[in-house]
């Protein structure tokens, strides 16, 4: 798992970027933490620099919106979803369990894909 940091250091409505196999954006949406790949699937823009509203982030480049729970875009210009990752909060620390893409490793078990909020 990837240590993101203390939950208290990520204010509601804010995000941080951590490095996994790719950059991952971690969002605090009204006290629930979600993690998605940080790069917009439309063009190379950092989603952690985007605008968070409810459970969606708007890309700062061309306003594509992605659902933090599913990674799906709400419409053009993005057509492909971003990968989502499991978030675990343990003893006040936020961790991300990076999702392994299907087919990336023969026999690999795909990790949970829905950000789970504070436990």
TrEMBL record:
Limits of the Rieske domain: 2-96
UniProt GO molecular function: 2 iron, 2 sulfur cluster binding; dioxygenase activity; metal ion binding; monooxygenase activity; oxidoreductase activity, acting on paired donors, with incorporation or reduction of molecular oxygen
Alphabetical list of Gene3D superfamilies matching this protein: Rieske [2Fe-2S] iron-sulphur domain
Pfam family, one: Rieske
Keyword list, A-Z: 2Fe-2S, Dioxygenase, Iron, Iron-sulfur, Metal-binding, Oxidoreductase
Keyword Oxidoreductase attributed: yes
Name of the molecule in the record: Bifunctional 3-phenylpropionate/cinnamic acid dioxygenase ferredoxin subunit
Organism the protein comes from: Saccharopolyspora aridisoli
């Amino acid at each position: 798992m990837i240590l993101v940091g203390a939950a208290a250091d990520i204010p509601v409505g804010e995000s941080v970027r951590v490095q996994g196999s790719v950059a991952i954006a971690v969002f605090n949406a009204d006290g629930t933490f979600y993690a998605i790949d940080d790069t917009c699937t439309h063009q190379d823009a950092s989603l952690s620099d985007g605008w968070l509203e409810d459970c969606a982030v708007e890309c700062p480049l061309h306003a594509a919106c992605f659902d933090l729970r599913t990674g799906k875009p709400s419409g053009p210009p993005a057509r492909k979803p971003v990968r989502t990752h499991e978030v675990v909060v343990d003893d006040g620390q936020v961790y991300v369990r990076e999702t392994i893409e299907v087919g990336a490793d023969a026999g690999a078990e795909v990790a949970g894909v829905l950000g789970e909020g504070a436990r």
